[in-house]
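Encode chain A's predicted structure.
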Amino acid sequence: MRWALVKVCVAVTTMVVVAFAVPLGLVIKEMARDRAFSNAEREAAAVAPALSITTDRDQLERVVASAASDEGMAVHLPASDGKAASDIGRQRATDRDITTTRKLGRASTAEVAGGSTLLQPTALSSGEIAVVEVYVPESEVSNGVGTAWAVLAAVGVALIIGSVAVADRLGVRMVQPAQRLVEGAHELGEGRLGARVPEEGPTELRLAAVAFNSMADQVVQLLSNERELAADLSHRLRTPLTVLRLNTASLGDGPAAEQTRAAVAQLEREVDTIIRTAREAKPQTAAPGFGAGCDAAEVVRERMDFWSALAEDEGRKVRVAGVDRPVRIPVARADLAAALDALLGNVFRHTPEGTAFAVDVHNGEDAVIVLVSDAGPGIVDPEAAMARGRGSGSDGSTGLGLDIVRRLAESTGGDVRIDSSVLGGTEVRIWIQLDGRAPVRRGHRGSVRRRWHLAAR
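Encoded structure for chain A:
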């Protein structure tokens, strides 16, 4: 916008300068020409009184010498009283031009080498017509014109530079509020809820800033209400959790009892975490850095150890791949564990007993891919399942599991896809970006998937 305004001002000012400077320059040139010929007419008029009195050559030569400061004047006398025609001074005009001026009886100009001549007819005492020729060199006709044009050009350039400076200042006054509005929108989009925009600038931008600040205040209020609601709902779960924890004490010993107690303890920790996070005055909205992430391979091994006991009870075959060495990702350990538990819980919940499943981790150049696949009947409508994963919930599913997975992937710039697995059932692919800035390129997804299939064979 700033440069567009500057360009418009330059164009308008240039047109105005050209519209006024060019005609003014031509007027100056014409004025210089008129001045030069007016001087020539005065010199010719100075000789006229002498011609009306005498035609003596010696006297006329003295008059011509005194009237003209150089050899630019000549007098052409006609033949009379038996005297032949004579010329005093240097003749530059042609005989034809002199004869024509004598016949017409009025002054005229003629172009000659190096300039022009003024031919002024003058009556003699005898009634004949003499012609006074005054030479006007080209340098005298253009005297001062170049300087005047240079001054006009300098004034025009100064006007253009001044218009650019004024337009730039006006552009800054308009652009700076718009830039602050853009920066505020980016900050709010990145999770900095305290971002506000100064209500300055033109009226339209001021109104936009007021609307933006009002929107940001409403967002903060809505998030605060949501945190309070989440904290209240989580707090209500404490009572049934306490009952479950007391009841697990009566289960005795054994693998199933230990797993139940561990699950209840983990559920209590998760509820406490939700309450603490929801009660914070400033929610943590920024994505964790790379150093604040976790080892995906370690988390997968830990959660598979937990679920493998239940898989063994139900006769399910389990395969884990890609967890033999560390795989660092910019995701919190608890978030990845919650996402894996959500997907594996769906496998146990929506597939028959004895259905095999697998978890694979692939470490790419700019992304880590976690695949959870099963040999179940598959998902008839993956798009509807992803829609439920965006919080709508239908068909007996709350959609919270896929919603947890989706938020984890999108917090790094990745995404989630549901496809058919190599086992014949459903495959959920979690794409986790390592740089956390841009989604994984679709072409890269295909190449990574092909490399993973080759490695899995």
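DSSP finds 13 helices and twelve strands in the chain.
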